[in-house]
Known about the structure:
The structure is a homodimer.
Chain A: E1 3-6, E2 10-16, E3 19-26, H1 28-36, E4 42-49, H2 54-62, E5 70-73, E6 79-83, E7 92-97, E8 117-120, H3 125-134, E9 140-144, H4 147-152, H5 154-161, E10 166-170, H6 171-178, H7 183-192, E11 197-201, E12 207-210, E13 215-218, H8 232-247, H9 252-269, H10 283-297
Helix pairs in contact in A: 1-8, 3-5, 6-7, 8-9, 9-10
Amino acid sequence: xxxxxxxxxxxxxxxxxxxxxxxxxxxxxxxxxxxxxxxxxxxxxxxxxxxxxxxxxxxxxxxxxxxxxxxxxxxxxxxxxxxxxxxxxxxxxxxxxxxxxxxxxxxxxxxxxxxxxxxxxxxxxxxxxxxxxxxxxxxxxxxxxxxxxxxxxxxxxxxxxxxxxxxxxxxxxxxxxxxxxxxxxxxxxxxxxxxxxxxxxxxxxxxxxxxxxxxxxxxxxxxxxxxxxxxxxxxxxxxxxxxxxxxxxxxxxxxxxxxxxxxxxxxxxxxxxxxxxxxxxxxxxxxxxxxxxxxxxxx
Amino acid sequence: xxxxxxxxxxxxxxxxxxxxxxxxxxxxxxxxxxxxxxxxxxxxxxxxxxxxxxxxxxxxxxxxxxxxxxxxxxxxxxxxxxxxxxxxxxxxxxxxxxxxxxxxxxxxxxxxxxxxxxxxxxxxxxxxxxxxxxxxxxxxxxxxxxxxxxxxxxxxxxxxxxxxxxxxxxxxxxxxxxxxxxxxxxxxxxxxxxxxxxxxxxxxxxxxxxxxxxxxxxxxxxxxxxxxxxxxxxxxxxxxxxxxxxxxxxxxxxxxxxxxxxxxxxxxxxxxxxxxxxxxxxxxxxxxxxxxxxxxxxx
Lengths: 299, 299
C-alpha cells in the first residue's frame, strides 16, 4: 500500500556535543519519509515557505517522494533551533519560528484521498483532523503527538485519537496524557481513548507496543556514537509504518517486524546530523543491521 | 557450583503508593538469596544485631541458606527507611541506621573459602576487598556498588574492581564512575578498570551486558502493578549469579540465559513488599514466566 504522511518540513539549526549545523533540512515529515521510502511510495503533505532552498526540494524529489501536496505558501519555512547537552536524550528548544506553519491548511489531491495508510506526524491536532477527514477510507491510521498539544489542545487531540488505529507516543507524553505512571496502565488508558494500539517510544531504552492481545517490548539498537538524535522518533515511525504499508496487513508478527525495522532505522538516524545518514540508507543496510540485532538479542 | 554472597541483612521500613510496611526483612544479601537459592546452595555472609527477630533468622534458615557466616554482633541490626513516590524508579532514603554494619568485619569458614562463585553485593568496598582476600581461588567474582561508595571511597572501589569478573551496576552509577554518558562508552571504560564484563541495570528499562565480544540488551518484563521495587536489583543479580553458578560455565549463551532469569526474578520481586513474593518463588514460576517472556519478545 502507498503511505501518506502529514507533518512538517523544516529548516533546523542544531547544536550537539558533536558539533553545530545550520539550516539542515528537517521536520517530522522529512525524517519519517527517509525510512518509510525504503518500503513503499510515500506522499508528503506539508508546507514550506518561499525561502525554501530549491536544492532541498530537488533533494526530496530525488528521494522519490511524492510532493504533489507539499505546498509552497507565502512566508517563511518553519524553523527550529535546538541544542542537546550531555545526555542527548532531549533537546532544549532555543527558537521556533512557525512561519507558514501557522496558517497551514493541508489538502491532498483527489487521487491521494484514496491512500489507505496514513501517518499523522506531530502537529496541531486540528490540522491532523482536517487531513484525516479528507481521506476516503484509510485502512490504517497512526498518529504522533507531543506535550505541547497535550497541554494546549487536549480536547482536539482526544477527538482525533478516536479515529486512529495506532497512537505513537513517547513515554513522558504517554504518562502525561494518561495520568498513569506505569506504562502498561498508561497503554491501557490511552487505548480506551480510541486507538487499538499504543506504541510507546523510549529513546535509548527502545519501544514497547501495547495492544489488547499482546505486549511487545523491544530494546534500542545500541549506538556508540550518537551525533544528533533529532528526528529519531519520526525515523522510527517511518520504518514502522513503511513496513506495515508494504506488508498490507497488521498481524502480531508483522507489527513486531515493523517495530524492529523502525528501531534499526532510528539507530542510523542518530549517527549523523539531520538526514545525512538516513538519506543514504538502503533497505540492505537496514536488513544487515537488523540481522546483527537479531543475533545480538537471541537467547 | 555453590555461591557465596557478601551483603547486608536489614530491617526495612518502606512506603510506596501501594502502602506502608515496617520492619520488613530486607538488605542486599537477603534479596539476592531469594532468587539465587532457586539455582544452587547459597552461603550468606552478613551481620545482624542482637535485636534481629528470631523468626526472621528461622525464616532465612527455612529458605535453605547457609548461615554459618551470618554473624550476630553486639548492637542493632542495620535499618533502612525509604519512600517511593509517583515514579517508583528510585527511593528517597528517610533514615539509615548502620548499627552493627558500621564495624562489620566479614569472615568465612575454612570450607567456605573454597567456594568458587562469589557475589559482593553493595557495601563498603573495603569490606568487599577484605572478604575477597579470604577466598581461595574463586572462578567467578561479581560486584555491585552504589553512588555512595563511588563518591566516598572511589580509590578502594577501583582497587577491588581490578579483581572482579563482572561489575553489576545501575546506569546512573555507570555514568558517574566512568564519566561517559553513552552506555557503550561507559561499559568499555568500566571494563578497562578491570572487570571483563559490565552488566548495567536500567530498572524498568531492562539491562544490558557489555563484554569484549558481545553486547546483550534485554528489556524488563512488563509488570503492571509495581508494589515495592526495593531489592529488585539484588533479586536480578541473584537470578543472574544463581544461574551462572548452576551452569558452571560463562559462555555467551549461558550469560544471556542468566540475564533472562535475573530479569524474570526481579519482575516477581517488585510485585509485593519485601521478600513476600520472592520467598514463595519456585523455579517453575521463573520458567513459566520466562517462557511467556520469550514468546512476547519473539519476532
